[in-house]
Amino acid sequence: MLLTNYLYLIIRFCTTTQQHVDLVGWCDYVWIIWTFVEIQHMRKVWMWMLLAQTAISPLLAQEPAPATKGVSYGAGVSKEGEAVLVAKLEQQLTEDRFSGKARGKVVEVCLEKGCWMKLAQADGKTLMVRFKDYGFFMPKNIVGKEVLLEGDASYRQMSVDMQRHYAKDAGKSEEEIQRIREPKRDLQFVAKGVVVL
Questions:
Q1: Which residue, of 13, 42, 97, 124, has the greatest Cβ tally within 10 A?
Q2: Positive or negative CA dihedral for 92, 117, 108, 104?
Q3: Residue ranges covered by each domain of the chain
Q4: pTM above the 0.85 mark?
Q5: Residue 28 dihedral angles phi and psi, to the nearest 5°
Q6: Is 153 helix (H, G, I), strand (E, B) or coil?
């Protein structure tokens, strides 16, 4: 609105001939300057509001509830159907996919935000678990807990960059991170809900 007034008054002022510059013309001139000052003031107000929001947002971000028995994250887990043990999940795949519930022990979690975790599989391997639409996170104390997941599992290719990113999130040393040099295809689970058992 202020910008529209400003443009209108500029056009009106510029089309006024020298003969007609009277009190009304000078009032228009003063109004143009005042409108310009208001625009500049509003820009400063918006800038300060944006800075304040940026500074406060991390403070308002909620930490996930500590991992204790019965606590659920995301959409939770439905009561229907049996859960498959994570160690036997690969045997339950149909066309390299699985949809349903799985149960396992958490052996690693993202130390930055809790945006992923790994569950123990057979032979020392782990199952990477991410959370649907990045919609919820895990607390750092979930390592060592048994959990029940619901969602979808499938094989995915993981690039070297992504593996290194996950290793950094897990607090691995720079030496361990640099040892990652090959992409890998592994089973990953996207959970819509998690419950601590």
A1: 13
A2: negative
A3: 2-60, 72-196
A4: no
A5: -60, -40
A6: strand
Instruction: Please list the pLDDT of the chain residue by residue as tens digits (197 residues).
Output: 555 555 555 556 555 555 444 545 555 665 566 666 666 667 776 666 766 666 555 544 567 889 899 999 999 999 888 999 999 988 888 888 999 999 999 999 998 889 999 999 988 889 999 999 989 999 999 999 999 999 999 999 999 999 999 888 888 899 999 999 999 998 999 999 999 99
- E strands, the chain, in order: 72-74, 83-85, 97-109, 116-120, 126-131, 146-158, 184-196
- Give the number of C-alpha atoms closer than 13 A to the C-alpha of residue 174, restricted to the C-beta side: 0
Q: Fold for 72-196, please state it.
A: OB fold (Dihydrolipoamide Acetyltransferase, E2P) (2.40.50)
Alpha helices, DSSP H, located in 76-179: 160-169, 174-178
Q: Tell me, what DSSP letter sits at residue 139?
A: -
